[in-house]
Amino acid sequence: MELSNPFCHTMAILLAVLLVAAAATTEADGALCDKSDKAALLAVKSALGNPPALSVWNSSTPCCSWDGVSCDAITGRVTELTVFALNISAPVPAAIANLTKLQILNLAYNQLYGPIPSFLGPRALPDLTFLRLDGNRLSGAIPPTATVFNLLLEGNLLTGTLPSTFGAAAFGEVGVAGNQLSGDASMLFGAKKKLNALRLSRNRFAFDLGSVELPEGLDILVIDHNMTNY
Predict the structure, then answer these.
(1) How far, in Å, CA of 184 to CA of 39, rounded?
(2) Where are the domains of the chain?
(3) How far apart are CA 204 and CA 225, in angstroms?
(4) Which one, of 86, 90, 81, lies nearest residue 53 by Cα?
(5) The pLDDT value given to residue 5
(6) 145-158 pLDDT, tens digit each
(7) Which residues of the chain carry a pLDDT beneath 70?
(8) Tens of pLDDT along 203-227?
(9) From edge to edge, which strands make up the β-sheet containing 113-114?
(10) 207, 182 contact by CB (below 8 A)
């Protein structure tokens, strides 16, 4: 009777396991990028004028491997989108609203123009905690929905007053310096607020700083070049 070689038998089993694992990995990689998020990102790219720097964003590759895109490792949903300093001149793309699991959005230092869309906030994007739009040419009023924990809007052309919704919002950082904002910004202050950094300089805010309580954890406060009473 012919006896099988135990070593060969073990190697055959090991090879089969490796092939199954490789197939599973390939399948997972292919499924990693959520289809609806990929379609939204391609729409974002189109709305931004298909800049050469985003040429890797194409239908033949998983979107989670694209520059500036990060995804949840389990669900494949897009959690972070960064299009930074590409000199893009366009409005903020409406398709971003379809990235419903987005946590971080950074579109800073481009030439984006027009208003800040109302969907850029936790009402439409419930997981959004970081919004960076500084260094653009965005204009108009800040929408009341923009109550994102870290809100960076410095160096734009924003006008009007701060939304009343900002008074009850839980901010960690607010940067609106270098705009044309006016009115009372004292709603952002309060001893129990979570605010760590507040930049209001180079606007037209007018309020009495002596009448407010500074947040206990406030490390950065920049309010120069306003109409504020110290």
Answers:
(1) 42
(2) 35-222
(3) 8
(4) 86
(5) 55
(6) 999 999 999 999 99
(7) 1-31, 230
(8) 999 988 889 999 999 999 999 999 8
(9) 113-114, 137-140, 157-160, 180-183, 204-205
(10) no
Find where tokens 């579109």 sit.
107
> How many whole angstroms from its chain centre is CA 52?
21
Three-state helix/strand/coil letters over the chain: CCCCCHHHHHHHHHHHHHHHHHHHHHHHHHHCCCHHHHHHHHHHHHHCCCCHHHCCCCCCCCHHHCCCEEECCCCCCEEEEECCCCCCCCCCCHHHHHCCCCCEEECCCCCCEECCCCCCCCCCCCCCCEEECCCCEEEECCCCCCCCCEEECCCCEEEECCCHHHHCCCCCEEECCCCEEEECCHHHCCCCCCCCEEECCCCEECCEHHHCCCCCCCCEEECCCCCCEC
Q: Which residue has the tokens 């300093």?
A: 85
- Could you identify the residue written with the tokens 């590409």? 86
CATH code given to domain 35-222: 3.80.10.10
Q: Output the six-digit token pair for 95.
A: 């398709």
Give the tokens for residue 48.
Answer: 């931004």
Say what the pLDDT of residue 230 is.
Answer: 67
Distance CA 1, CA 20 (A): 32
